[in-house]
Amino acid sequence: MKNSLFLIAAAVGSTFGMSSAQAEQKVLVAECHGKGARFFLSEVTQQEANVLMGTDGPMPDNAIIVIAAGKEPFWSTRSRKQIDQDCGGEGQDEIELFAGTQPRDGVWRTDISTRAEDCPTAIRQGLAGNLPGPESDSRSMKWPRPFDPNNLPRDYNPGHTWKPAGENRWTTSLLDAAGLPSFEGRQFARSTMVMTLKSETEITMSHTMQINLPGIAQQALGGGGNCRIITDSVSVWQSD
């Protein structure tokens, strides 16, 4: 009860001398990350920020909340360029005007592996020694803002059309081909990819080539009617 009364009193005190427009104004936040600052518009209002930080309003219209590791958040009236330089950057002042997870620019390492599951004996024998082994690659990336796999560089996304498939998840179909129907079912081949932005420092992608065979073909090839060749890649941010 005492805590509730304190918060109410603090909220009332923080709005003294502050217009209703100022009180409800969303605050701009600068998040220091060692090589500069990330600027974004918070969902927190100036009134709420004063309560959280124990400060009194009103704040100047150009005031920015600065967040840095090992320090208490504080208000600053320095320009965005100056704050970015204070945070170790070169003076960028771009404000992120979108919601959602954004991967960090910089050097990313990608590890790729391929496997076959539930494939007929003849196909497994044919693939033996021909599937690519584990691969790794590192490259510098500057991601589109906001992140959208359809806007990736052509060498990273060679013409695929990605569709949303959930939060920070996209899918694309590369092949969907069906053969003639038979009494034992229809043979088809399907190739799909799924990309997931798991965090600002990790992106996963899975490419599945699926071959469904009718019973007579399974017998001839040695079982495995739902053959899948799966290539997984995990990309992890390494450094700026």
UniProtKB/TrEMBL annotation:
Q: Does the keyword Signal apply?
A: yes
- Signal peptide range: 1-23
Keyword tags: Plasmid, Signal
Q: Where is this region: Disordered?
A: 118-156
**What is the name of this protein?**
Uncharacterized protein
Source organism of the structure: Peteryoungia desertarenae
Question: Lineage of this protein's species?
Answer: Bacteria, Pseudomonadati, Pseudomonadota, Alphaproteobacteria, Hyphomicrobiales
